[in-house]
Amino acid sequence: MKIISTKEILLYFTFLLSITLFAQNKSDRELILIDKDWRFSLGHLYDTQKDFGHAEGYFSYLAKTGFGDGPAAPGFDDRAWRKLDLPHDWAVEQSFSEKASFSHGFKTAGKGFPEKSIGWYRKKITIAQSDQGKIISLKFDGVFRNSKVFFNGHFLGTEESGYNGFEYDVTAYVNYGGENTIVVRADASMEEGWFYEGAGIYRHVYLQKTNPLYVIQNGTYVTSEIKNDTAEVTAEVTIENKGNYKGNIEIVQTIFDASGKDISNTVENAAAPDFYKTAKYTSKIKVRNPLLWDLDTPNLYRLLTEIKQEGKVIDSYETNFGIRTIKFDPENGFFLNGKSVKLKGTNNHQDHAGIGTALPDELQYYRIKKLKEMGSNAYRCSHNPPTPELLDACDKLGMLVIDETRLMGINDYHLNDLKRLIERDRNHPSIFCWSVGNEEWNIEGGIVGERITNIMQGFSKSIDPTRPVTVGISSGFKSGISSVVEIMGYNYIGNGDIDAHRNEFKNQPGMGTEEGSTFATRGIYFTDDAKHYQSAYDKKPRPTFYSIEEGWKFYASRPYLAGMFIWTGFDYRGEPTPYGWPSVTSYFGMMDVCGFPKDNVFYLKSWWKNEPVLHLLPHWNWSGMEGKEIDVWAYSNCDEVELFLNKKSLGKKKMEQYGHLEWKVKYEPGTLEAIGYKNGKKILTEVQKTTGNPETIKLSLDQESPSKATVSVITVEVMDKNGLHVSTANNEITFSIKGGKILGVGNGDPTSLEKDQFLDDINLVPITNFEEKKNVSGDNANQSALNDEKDWKEAFKDRDYKNQASAYIYRGRFELKNNLQSNIVDFFYKKIGANESVFVNGNLINASTDDPQKYHLDQAVLKEGTNVISIRASPLQKIKDWDVMNTDPGIIRIITPSQPWKRKLFNGYAQIIIQKGENENAAEVILSASAKGLRAGNSLKLN
Questions:
Q1: What is the 3-state secondary structure (H, E, C) of 853-915?
Q2: In this model, does residue 601 exceed pLDDT 70?
Q3: Options 240, 450, 514, 717, the catalytic residue
Q4: Catalytic annotation, pick one of 439, 515, 642, 772
Q5: What is the pairing mode between strands 230-241 and 213-227?
Q6: What pTM, to 2 d.p., does this model score?
Q7: pLDDT digits 0-9 by tens, 45-98
Q8: pLDDT by residue (tens digit) across 390-428?
Q9: Pairwise CA distance, residues 242 & 171, whole Å
Q10: Which helix (H) or strand (E) holds 121?
Q11: Does the active-site annotation cover 514?
Q12: Which of 160, 193, 217, 809 has the fewest CB atoms nearer than 10 Å to its CB?
């Protein structure tokens, strides 16, 4: 017999105790990303048949609980639908048309295109039996737009705006231990903005599980006050009780630094809220020698909020925050942590080349890094609440943010949206100002605007008193909103007398919320209105507007102005001012839609950053213009710049502060060289060389794209025989990929009507003229019964389910147009009987091995035009008289494989966005490129 020692017994009980303590200190809260494996199909705005029969039922989902019909019904057959992952923007997948929306980039989706304005999404999930007793909810970061959400056929609600996050409690509807169906119907037929907005579930979706006593959505509010070397952090938490928790609870608040070290905590004893009630609790926590959040050192802390009862952790909730101070001064501008900071900002919409609004998280970081590289330190969310991941990127990279609501007003629609925005975002240290409106021309200058602003401003302060409020104003700066708003937002110097307004309202701080609106096309140096190309030299866009240089000089020379926000950092789809069709993107950006810099980037970099800068424009490939004068500009913060052409000096010039230098140079091929001097010493050289013809393709990972990221941004260019970049190249490049997938392509050409994405085309073809007759012989393969034209009648019409035949033959027709040999055609059968046999054009078709109700139709049995499908089956019997029997035989799906991915270079560059396999053991990604007449360079490998 084995004798167990006292030491072994103690170790065993210590182990049991540690497991018990771990279980007690582990929250049941789960937040599960459910972006993978959705089914999608376009529906129809008003034709219910084309909208899969939705809202045709006798009882609608608004009449009776759980009566979601069509795709909203749990049992709807979506096997023929496309399979995809979120985020997803169906608008960017569409073609262009002159009949489409000017402001939305002429994509054939949304307004005016009823067959492409409705999108249906479906996903099946399993929720464990062990989750009973928990609160189960769905969290959406944003759906564009007017979304209706169903869960197991139950209608959960409608969210009109495409920019709000929202959450639905589905606890009562869950099928525990079994399959559950999430359905979203998005209606993008109405535009919220006057810019490209995308369509569909373009932000993340989560499944959340918590105990019934829990911290509500966006339920923490963290502020701090710094005194000497200590920050007193105030942590407010809102707790809801959807269960039977009673009595006292402990609220434990713990702060961790960036390394994960516990640096401070506090415990508060309180009473649990009553059933289905919420309560707020406040704790004070001291942090000694805090590391402040700043532009160059964006230090972050993490607050862990735990709810305990009888020593057991019931819920835990994490909040990232930063410790910093902000202040606006009407005489001296903006201060961050007590230091004067001139705001060097940009306005930006939320779309990107190739992918529309469905940006992977990595692209948010990519774009903020591009702006930081330019010298920008501030970002205005124009003109809507951003995706949370953008704010995370700004927090982590050190970018100040103006966070803006979508629409001004004083009723629930307006104020509730504002409330949700502030409560969601107020813990982000990057946010330094709330914007409650932009260019509301109908109300800006009058008493209505003044009243609305006073209410929205006060309402904002009631939710977050730590930040000021602004409004962007463009119709004069004399009365109305401009007389009452806390921080004056000037939209364009030319729209009013800023100095005069300041003299009248000396206690009102101000900043330029929009400036510039200049027109430029990357790589173009002679305006060509016929081609819709604008010169990239910095010029006034219109007589009353200012160039980028003029705008920065104005704001930089006035200490009382906190800074300015350029319109825009990036080009965006839509608003192709000063042109129209076939221009499909804006011309305003400092960078194009890909993030490739236009020359103005280097002007800003010269005066927005502290490092030495020297940039020379234009390129030096001007064949056919020999002897003609070319405007040569230098952007630099050097004291002097000397220009050489083929080693001959063209003169040294002194740089004016916030200025640039110009020369008139008669073109001759060769080398244009600029030398920058600081304190009389040569510190920088910049060269533009005449290149040869393109010979080789080069692929490179963008420097702002982390090598280990799941999504990577690849720059495509061509080189001449000497390895020089050819800045005038416009070759069409074809791509292939192994080990990953391509998400989108772009090139920054504002007039490009090329595809953004190359996807298989899926066409769902209905079976029409569906007829039936009794199958007297009962022979499945009786060809004569299929061909006999006698006794056919409309299928299921006046069917007497108590006196059915032993078997029926059904037939219908479907049309095939442009039936290519490469097409993949399948019939997805919906059960209308038992022991079925399926024939197409008289040929017996065997069911697929992976799905007994799916039939692959080989090209040999198909024909162009009308095809006949016949089904022989024994009838299904009603169990109850009121049972509704399926009468839909199914649908034909035609997949036309896409062309290879391709894109033309535009003035030397194109961009391709790729996604690696997400499995840790996934093979390396190999991207290859080819083009007619060019040697393929080395393939790009990403591990």
A1: CEEEECHHHCCCEEEEEEEEEEECCCCCCCCCCCCCCEEEEEEECCCCEEEECECCEEEEEEE
A2: yes
A3: 514
A4: 439
A5: antiparallel
A6: 0.95
A7: 999 999 999 999 889 999 999 999 999 999 999 999 999 999 999 999 999 999
A8: 999 999 999 999 999 999 999 999 999 999 999 999 999
A9: 11
A10: strand 118-127
A11: yes
A12: 160
